[in-house]
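Let's do one together. I've listed all components of the complex below, 642 residues spread over two lines.
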Amino acid sequence: MVLRSVLARRPHVLTITPATVDLGLRLAVEAELARRRWPEASAPVDADVALVLGTPGPRLAAVVRSVWATVPAPRVLVAVPTAGVLRSALDDAAAGLRSSRPRGSRASSLSLDASNDALLPDGDWADHREVDVPPEPQMADLAFYDRDGLALDALHVALGPVLPHWPAGLVAHVTLAGDLVTDAHAEVLDVPASVGPGSRGRSPLGPDRTRLDVLTRVLGLLGADHLAARARHLRDHDPEPGELTAFGRRLHRNRPVRWAVRDVPLVGGAVEERTLADRVAHLAGALGGSLPPPVRPTAEKAVQAMVGLELGAARLVLAALDPDTTLGAGPVAAFAPPEVTHHHH
Amino acid sequence: MVLAPGLVLVAGLAAGLKAVTAGESPATPAVETLRLLGKQRRRTPDDDPGLARVGLALLPVAAVLALAVVPLGDRAPVDLDVGVVWFNAMEVVAWFAVWVAGWGPNAVTSLAGGYRVLPLGLAYEVPHMLAIITPAIAAGSLSPVAIAAAQQDLWYAVWMPAAFVLYLVSVAAMAFWGPFAAPLGRDLAGGAAAEHAGLDRLLLLAGRWMLLTAAAAMAVPLFLGGGAPPPITGPDPFPGLPALWFGVKLAVVLGLLLALRRAVPMLRMARFATLAWVVLVPLAVAQALVVTLVVLA
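Okay, and this is what the predicted structure of the assembly comes out as:
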């Protein structure tokens, strides 16, 4: 069928990444998708291929099941446990989209809902069907804080772990008043919360590639596609120091980008920088130099920095802080909701 | 009757041009259209599908109705005396369309995306209205045909450059596109489009390109002399082909809009509101004032 062969030419790919994934695998997947010009899906509805990297633990497996249930057909679910099987897995995905009948025979390319169990550790698809019944609608509380005194409803929402340019395996449990984040706590799926500090200088990527990885996400969220593509290219192809400093200068000179990240504070002391603009400037300015790698805070510290910001700014802050989720959420303060007083006007 | 397919075709060409500048195949819009046509549609729990579909269907309709009053050459499909006002009214229909398309699915990212249309509209609409009213003041008419005809000797893009630039910026905002794509932003997983699949998604994304193209088409009669050749070329090398001149000018305007997208990243609504009220509104008022004084003198 024509539509199906067209679909396989440029499938949109939703990658689902566990916190404990091998960093090399994540970068290999991003580079291979860019090489094939397969776009990154912005949401499950936009996806043709759902790509599960590494080995998801039980919590993430449950998320994969509920996300997969929302991907519209025709669709293919593919597991990529190691970088070695990446190319064949993507070829299988394209073939699975092309064939009108879903193929359940190969372990790496599963199209039938019932065959997902092979992929997911303790998956039970039959049980999941019952979960599809929508739960009772939850009534929103009244916000105890908002920026303009409108007493908006407070919504409790879990953001992540399947969002574009989002830290691997992170779920941010946030309270929203309109589009304003009024409270936020981090959870890293399948990794116990540790008490260690952030990964100061511990990134296996090395300083410059870590900076480029962070910049790729920030620029991607900003919709600066060609700059994001350039940052990713430099990250994936051993660049000369001269190329790195040139890219850093190019970002530094780019007034629209500088202007777009202005006026966002970084609160909570997760990193030395006090504003998002400083953080981005330091990441770009240090490229090709000999400075130590950027500080990557714990997930809880990074998620706390979203509080008080509008969702778009909060997403930029989280991407720029780039928490190290392999360490778990980090020390979590006991949650004590402030006194809620309802004002009726 | 040919207006809607024509608009779809030109919007598709514009999207193809964008794909080429991004290093993709020019067939990308066609591939994406077929892809979305082949995808299943989807609903969310406790949604309002009627509301969402009213919005999704209205967006391309608003784009076609906005284009209907634009002279494509020397005549408009519907020659309305108050064409400029009609065009502006269709924009507000588009706001409503995106807003309810985001509201319908009953999901956080979608709703937040839909609501971003409001700060976007509040920021761009005042400079936009001043920018389209300024040529109308100079021509003494609200009819796009009359405004185009008043530029026999001098294009308004030259005579009122600030209004032209403001118009270009504000039409990108009106089509929530490029720097103003926040209602469909990646930070909200696609915003108002975050829960729409298949045909629903196609209507929203194609409707946006159609709106952008219709708005770019309006720049031709308002600022670039409509279907007439440039005043400096002397005798018209293509006499009797106003549609050709119109097409060339439309391509130039679309090219400028594509360059704008590449030069400026997506702006948060708070940033754009700052830009609009601190820079764009005073500039638009000053431009309108200068033109009014010259017309009165």
